[in-house]
Amino acid sequence: MDVSNSPSNSSPDSPQPVDPPPSGRFTERSLAEWVTFAIASLILIGLVGLILYDWQVNQNRPPAFNVTVSEAVRITDGRYYVPFAITNTGGRIANGVQITAELQIEGEGDETGEQQIDFLSGHETKAGSFVFNHDPDSGDLVVRVASYRLP
């Protein structure tokens, strides 16, 4: 009788089945896992704290505007295109932001232009251009925000 093939005899090098841990029990965590968990938790708490801080600081700041006019005036078909950029430096949203530009040239009539920005959120920048019949460098150009609405 050959006993080497019997299931009751197993060699010492053969893999033994590993019993899974009983359900409902937790395995002990290593130090590396605890350190990783602590660092990830600190990063998450820090991010949530920064978001809440930024929200609290900026939500109560009313819209405020900064309008910059580019020096690069483009001439097309005898008209002067003056690019501008407007930034809402406040924290709240502004609707219907109206920007006016007035070009005053001595001996000529005043030229005006208007732009309407429908929606400008806090810290957002939008760009556009004013179109004039006369060279803006030959006169006084004033660009300003005339009005806005709160949502």
What are its keywords?
alpha+beta; 151 residues; four-stranded antiparallel beta sheet; 1 helix
Architecture blueprint of SSEs:
Blueprint: H1 31-59, E1 65-69, E2 74-76, E3 79-88, E4 94-104, E5 111-120, E6 125-132, E7 140-149
Antiparallel strand pairs: 1-3, 2-3, 3-6, 4-5, 4-7
What does this structure look like?
There is one protein chain. The termini are far apart. Helices cover 19% and strands 38% of the residues. The protein has a domain at 65-149: Immunoglobulin-like, CATH 2.60.40.10. By secondary structure, it is an alpha+beta fold. Strands 1, 2, 3 and 6 form a four-stranded antiparallel β-sheet that branches. Strands 5-4-7 form a three-stranded antiparallel β-sheet, with no helix packed on it. It has one helix spanning 31-59, and strands at 65-69, 74-76, 79-88, 94-104, 111-120, 125-132, 140-149. A hairpin with a 2-residue loop joins strand 2 and strand 3. The model has no long low-confidence stretch (mean pLDDT 85). The protein contains one helix and seven strands, in the order αβββββββ.
At a glance:
With 151 residues, the protein is α+β, with helices and mostly antiparallel strands. It has a domain at 65-149: Immunoglobulins (Immunoglobulin-like, Sandwich), CATH 2.60.40.10.
